[in-house]
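TEACHING EXERCISE
Course module: macromolecular assemblies
Task: Read the component lines below, then compare them to the predicted structure of the full complex.
Student: A.B.
Group: 4
Components provided:
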Amino acid sequence: MNWALIVTIVFYALALLHSCLGFFRKRQIFVSLALCMVGVGFLFHTVYLVGLGLERRHFPITDLPESLSFFAWSITLTFIAAHIRYRYNVLGAFVLPLVSLLMILSEVAWEENHAIPPLLRSRWLYFHVSVAFLAYAGFFLMFIAALLYLMQEKELKSKRFRFLYFRLPALQACDELMRNSLFVGFVMMSLTIVTGAFWAQQAWGRFWSWDPKETASLVTWSIYLLLVHYRLSGGWRARRAAYVSIAGFVSMIITFGVNAGLHAYL
Amino acid sequence: MSDLVLIGLNHRTAEVERRERAALPSADVPGALTELTARPGIQEALILSTCNRVEVVSRVDGADPAFEILESFLAEVSGLPRNELSESLYRYAGSEAVEHVFRVASSLDSMILGEPQILGQVKSAYSLAVETGSSGTLLNNLFQAAFRVAKRVRTETSIGEYSVSVSSAAVELARKVLGNLGRKTILIVGAGEMGENTARYLADDGAGSIYVTNRGAEAAAGLASRFGGIAVPFDQLRYWLAHVDIVIVSTAAPNLIIDRSMVTSALRTRRNRPIVFIDMSVPRNVDPAVSDIENAFCYDIDDLGAVVEANLEERRGAAALAEKLVRQESEAFWARVKSMDAAPMVVEVRRRIEEVCQSELDRYLKRNGPRDPKEMKELEILVSRIAGKMSHPLVTQIKSAHEDPTHERALLTVVSRLFRSHKDPA
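Instructor-supplied answer key:
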């Protein structure tokens, strides 16, 4: 199935190139082309993941390259959804670099099929891990929206109207994307923790064991819980929410990276 | 042999006073067009008359004093003295005239670069010419192409995207903060004219309710009635700040009307939903320190000026791209016109040469008796090769004649004389 992976990478990279051209030169045609390429890339990506899963007879998120590729797939999925909902032309130029990077890393780190621990041959895997990755993707999108917000706010407050002022979406638009990706990410992350707890109960007889990944995800989840709380109460929007969401994103990266204790599979 | 010529004056070549006198009311245009096309050598004509330009475009029939005819015509209909008119006129012929028409339609020649009205004005000038019957194949093709080019410029460059008036800059800023302005509420403080203009732009952009407040309640009520807005008492300003998204301040008051503490408490009440202040008053009525408050955005008249300046800069950038596009399109258009023009002459030249060769071959065969098929074939090939070799350089010259406008007419006249068929009366 490696050819599908290569085709996917090529399409994502071309989409990235066109998104950047669209961003710098402010030409709609490049943005539209980029979106077509993302769409085609995403199709090949899906074909690749399904093919890989059938070939290896497991959900393809059990080793590092598989996870990276699945993460990229989740981000692309949320990106496409966000684009359909909001139509911000600049999003691609900010989201696609990570997608392309993840795909290239996945290709470089390519591993032949190997036996997976019997523990992972569980139906829980599908649900637990897919919602986890969707949560990560949602938080990543929120992180991007926060960056866009902070950059545009700086332009608007400094009153010097330059390059970014003309290209970035309206503040309120960034804020809305931040809010909605926060809610999606938060719901997904909550589901991840709950399904993880049930799976742990079945596998090891305990709901919660304080292993490093569990602890890290609880910290990340708390940060986002705080954000959701203040968001709903109206106290933190905009700049403060943007800063906290960047902190949450860092915490999320750590959560993603910690694979010790009971979660030591990769 | 026909050519395209254009004369005109615009905001760059003539003062407004002179433009006013030269302008032709659209009711007079059909009559003027009929009169113009009746003059010798004028085959098609179109008049474009707006407040910034008066132009006459025409297809002329080889007549050399083409500019002369158009100029005296324009002097007659406009009532401008001939010498005053002459010093303000620009004169273009051929591909330059095409390029000028394309630039005008694409708003690259406008006083405010990229302003969108000009295309509509060109379109109505064209329909007047079509209705009058003064527009023929060349002008029809030219203006259809101009509309297409103008559309390309709009869609492929960002020339029309940036607002360049102070009022529309205010709307643009509000939109950069608040996004879509639908259902956003506006408070106008003071009954100044700038405030009114800006509110009108906002209302055109789909903004929701408009509230007006002023120290003098009557002026507020008057302004409110013009927008279908609601006048609110001036001493309730604090309350209203908490309930609107955009505040436009335009008063003659010499002191601050809105200060930091008012905005801070308003934001608390509105749970930090962002609020935009557009302060158009001089001296300023909104404390500049309001800008430092999170979720409050405050712009004074200089900031609006900076937006306009930045927008003009972006437009100029886009215009460079648009100019390139227009140049390519006008060259392509003119080459097409010329090759269509040259087509009958090319056919005629080829036909004449082949005719001569063929008749010589026939005479030879008649005198020397028939040949066997192989020899016959060779003779035919020989003759057609001679015909081809002779006509090729001539055809190339005819087709590329338009590239050298100074000698074009002379060359084409010579060629048509040399190859005039014997049957024609010379």
